[in-house]
Amino acid sequence: MTDTVDNPFFARLWSRMSTREPESIRKLRRENLVGLSGRVLEVGAGTGTNFAFYPATVTQVVAIEPERRLAVIARQAAHEASVPITVSTDTVEKYQAGDPFDAVVCSLVLCSVDDPDGVLRQLFSMLRPGGELRYLEHVASTGPREQLQKIADATLWPRLLGNCHTHRDTERSILDAGFEVSDARREWMMPAWVPLPVSETAIGRAVRPG
Ligand SMILES: C[S@@+](CC[C@H](N)C(=O)[O-])C[C@H]1O[C@@H](n2cnc3c(N)ncnc32)[C@H](O)[C@@H]1O
């Protein structure tokens, strides 16, 4: 079980990068949260970039962010949000849920947890029947970019970038955890010609069957 997350270099980098996101990514963040209501769990909230985009129908967000430097920034973002948000510094693996959530939000985080299959099974169990997982995650590509991802994952990328793994079949893991994907598509975070291993992104909704 992952007890702590301590990534000073990544925290510094991410706190800068997240203030400079292009509108194309913000648009996807907004879309990922549209129509949510009730109690929401957000996993690995980073600096709280999603917080401004929660609709007023959300009554409470529990945001988990175990990297303490990022959690400090997320708490500031929580104060400025228009819905009530609390930030916990537990890892998702350690977090003890009480009542089931109406929705779980994962954005750019399932690449970074040690055991995505285990975490997705845990998130499934934390949702009420009929509850939704909303995800915005970069995913494994095919063709030449697949090779780039495998090289990145075997070298410095995860060590420098907060345990980010680029060649994960996250949508397969979502299905294997028991979710039913109700709506999903692929998007490019950067233009497809940019040789980055994290460009191809899945955005979707998956339901815990009732
Ligand atoms: C790439 S950042 C994305 C942050 C945010 N979700 C966003 O969309 O901007 C990944 C985040 O996941 C967090 N994280 C990594 N391992 C985690 C774990 N085991 N439990 C919860 N969060 C974790 C990191 O601290 C980091 O803030």
From TrEMBL:
GO terms for molecular function: methyltransferase activity. Pfam families: Methyltransf_23. InterPro entries: SAM-dependent_MTases_sf, Thiol_S-MT. Keywords: Methyltransferase, Transferase. GO terms for biological process: methylation. This is Class I SAM-dependent methyltransferase. It comes from Mycolicibacterium hodleri.
